[in-house]
Amino acid sequence: DAGITQSPRHKVTETGTPVTLRCHQTENHRYMYWYRQDPGHGLRLIHYSYGVKDTDKGEVSDGYSVSRSKTEDFLLTLESATSSQTSVYFCAISDLADTDTQYFGPGTRLTVL
Amino acid sequence: DQQVKQNSPSLSVQEGRISILNCDYTNSMFDYFLWYKKYPAEGPTFLISISSIKDKNEDGRFTVFLNKSAKHLSLHIVPSQPGDSAVYFCAASQLNEKLTFGTGTRLTIIP
After folding, report:
1. How distant, in Å, are the alpha carbons of A10, A21, A34, A85, B74 from that of A77?
2. Fewer CB atoms near the end CB (10 Å): N or C, chain B?
């Protein structure tokens, strides 16, 4: 299994509070991704990174920001959480040699009350 | 606009029989297709893939078929086993760009 961890694994927060989710990898892969999974929508890309300090938006990036200051860490921040951001969040990584095959972390279940 | 569609939210199959999961896509520029398997409370895991230059790829009990003219791919699992019960996502990409996922099909194998 690819070495990917996500923290926290579960979080309950209130509307309007900031939240940061962390993804940590030990594979030294260049690409990292944040997805959210919702019933009826599958997996949707929020943001991705193609190197340290290099990030770009996915299809559902509104309300989210990311940062990548080290190869191994990719942070997802909800500046002011809303109930519509209640979801399961997955981090994924892929190698430059095979960017199509992504390896996923265990997920973070976020509930915004 | 859903570019990758899995029209069957769920599927039940008897153990030992063949499971066939279907996926349709609308973007003719997609050139690589993948299937992922997901168990509850875990992240998706890569299962099998196929390039658009092929029409079939086989790995053990799993075979993926690609029909480019119909913009359709399918995953065959034979024989089906209880451990195959999971949610299956198909995904597609274009020129090593980002993956676009379908909505998933929940497969239940009945003992």
Report:
1. 15, 6, 11, 11, 37
2. N
